[in-house]
């Protein structure tokens, strides 16, 4: 009986054990952390690029909204782009006098008598995307279906990539990027 027990113990000792040791688990964890550490900056760059492109698409849509609203109402619609004191930026569409509406820090428009805010978009500093302020608003004339002055709206991401929205006299928008920095857009000439 003792010989059978000793033989049984020897057979169990030779059989390979299943599962992972603590050292093997720690090695897998270390390799995973190194790979994750290399992927996080790429994910942040991708997220920042998507945020920049989404903001540019929203601005283009709002430019079309301003033009169509001006044509439908026969009244001028203005696009105002302002820098915020907090470091972000804001743009708003409004009807009425030239200086009739302004962006306020709380994300609302302050309008004087005779002016009406149609749309406001605030880009806080945490968004990582800003729009360069315009010295004067773009005016969409509903009777002539034109925009004056023509302008280039510059959107910039925190990482330095930029998209330019070029608005022509007819209110059409062409998007480009300096140096081809944003994929999918043509390089600005």
Brief description of this entry?
This protein is α+β, with helices and mostly antiparallel strands and 189 residues long.
Explain what you see.
The protein is an alpha+beta fold. It has a single domain (24-180), classed as minor pseudopilin epsh fold, CATH 3.55.40. Helix content is 34%, strand content 29%. The protein contains two helices and eleven strands. A five-stranded antiparallel beta sheet has the order 5-2-1-7-8, with helices on one face. It has a four-stranded antiparallel beta sheet with strand order 6-9-10-11, covered by helices on one side. The longest helix has 52 residues, at 22-73. It is elongated.
Protein topology:
Blueprint: H1 2-14, H2 22-73, E1 77-83, E2 89-95, E3 101-103, E4 109-111, E5 116-123, E6 129-131, E7 138-141, E8 146-148, E9 151-157, E10 162-167, E11 173-176
């Amino acid at each position: 009986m003792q010989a059978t027990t000793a033989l049984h113990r020897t057979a169990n000792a030779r059989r390979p054990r299943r599962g992972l040791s603590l050292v093997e688990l720690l090695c897998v964890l270390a390799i995973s952390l190194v790979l994750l550490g290399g992927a996080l900056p790429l994910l942040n760059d991708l997220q920042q690029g998507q945020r920049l492109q989404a903001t540019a698409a929203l601005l283009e849509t709002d430019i079309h909204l301003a033009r169509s609203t001006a044509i439908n109402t026969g009244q001028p619609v203005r696009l105002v782009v302002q820098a915020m004191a907090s470091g972000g930026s804001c743009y708003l569409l409004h009807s009425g006098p030239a200086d009739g509406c302004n962006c306020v820090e709380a994300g609302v428009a302050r309008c004087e008598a005779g002016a009406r805010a149609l749309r406001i978009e605030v880009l806080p500093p945490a968004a990582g995307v800003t729009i360069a302020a315009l010295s004067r608003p773009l005016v969409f004339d509903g009777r002539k279906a034109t925009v004056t002055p023509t302008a280039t709206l510059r959107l910039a991401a925190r990482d330095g990539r930029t998209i330019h929205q070029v608005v022509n006299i007819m209110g059409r928008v062409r998007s480009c990027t300096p140096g081809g920095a944003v994929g999918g857009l043509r390089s600005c000439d």
